[in-house]
Design a protein that fits this description.
Length: 290
């Protein structure tokens, strides 16, 4: 049986970290998924004047204060990418690359980095399109696979797939030098559309087309509607009420993922509210079962 957390927080920006602080203060068993390189976007801010108590500070200085706060409270970040979350009734099942986590409540705080979907991406999801190469690798043994990667760290997934597939095309959407296995064909082009009949058969790029059996699109995060099936959206954002509750029982959201303004102080405040709401939900469920 998997270990079950009270709260799983997906995202390690200001909203997710604020939620983690409040989950810790209220003695809940929680886990934070994200990156230990806290809020890369924040570091790029030359000066932040709209965060109360941090007037004139640079983004790096504020980021360092975030890290210090986490260290003082012994809060750790689990560097696992969550690809799918399923509501199972009394709990949520969170699918990582090679693990499954369970939590009674979840707080979505992934920001808005998921980007625009490719034409045909949603149509062929589960029919040749996937977001986790290592998860679905056995399905593509001795087949042709194309990987569209938005970050250099995805090169490890490409190398793994290359040991299974008959052919791997790698389309890097980042500027760093690509360092993948010599058997992988690097395609420096812009993907436009995914085509096929009932299953994927082709990736159309700006300057060429690739015949392929499967396409993995590896972004930092995927759109919330694909991450959590059944989640109600307002455009590209998650729809929440003032308690940061979504339409799914036990699921809360906070920060940029729920809409503008895209400000750190707003995100931190919403993370606080989401954690308090999750705690209240947990306490209510506990009273029901007593």
């Amino acid at each position: 049986m998997n270990e079950r957390y009270d709260i799983a927080i997906i995202g390690s920006g200001p909203a997710g970290l604020s939620a983690a602080l409040n989950a810790s203060i209220r003695n809940k068993k929680f886990i934070v998924f994200g990156t230990k390189e806290i809020s890369n976007k924040l570091v790029k801010a030359h000066k932040v004047n709209n965060y109360l108590g941090f007037y004139g500070k640079s983004g790096k200085e504020i980021r360092d204060e975030f890290a210090k706060h986490l260290e003082e409270m012994n809060i750790e970040i689990t560097e696992e990418k969550i690809n799918n979350i399923y509501a199972m009734g009394e709990y949520f099942s969170l699918m990582a690359n090679d693990k499954v986590y369970e939590a009674t409540t979840i707080i979505l705080a992934t920001g808005v980095n998921f980007g625009k979907l490719l034409k045909g991406e949603e149509e062929f999801l589960g029919k040749g399109v996937g977001y986790c190469a290592t998860c679905d690798a056995p399905l593509y043994r001795d087949k042709v696979v194309t990987i569209v990667a938005y970050n250099k760290h995805e090169e490890a997934e490409a190398n793994f797939i290359a040991s299974i597939a008959s052919k791997v095309y790698y389309v890097p959407m980042y500027k760093e030098e690509v360092e993948v296995d010599s058997s992988i064909e690097i395609v420096n082009d812009i993907p436009l559309e995914i085509k096929g009949e009932t299953l994927v058969s082709k990736l159309v790029l700006k300057n060429r087309e690739i015949e392929t059996d499967g396409i993995f699109i590896l972004r930092d995060s995927i759109s919330p509607g694909q991450l959590v099936p059944g989640l109600e959206l307002d455009g590209s954002h998650v729809e929440v009420d003032r308690s940061m509750k979504t339409n799914i029982e036990g699921c809360f959201a906070a920060g940029d993922i729920v809409g503008a303004p895209y400000q750190y102080i707003k995100a931190a405040g919403e993370g606080n509210i989401a954690a308090l709401s999750a705690v209240a939900y947990l306490d209510k469920q506990k009273r029901k079962s007593a």
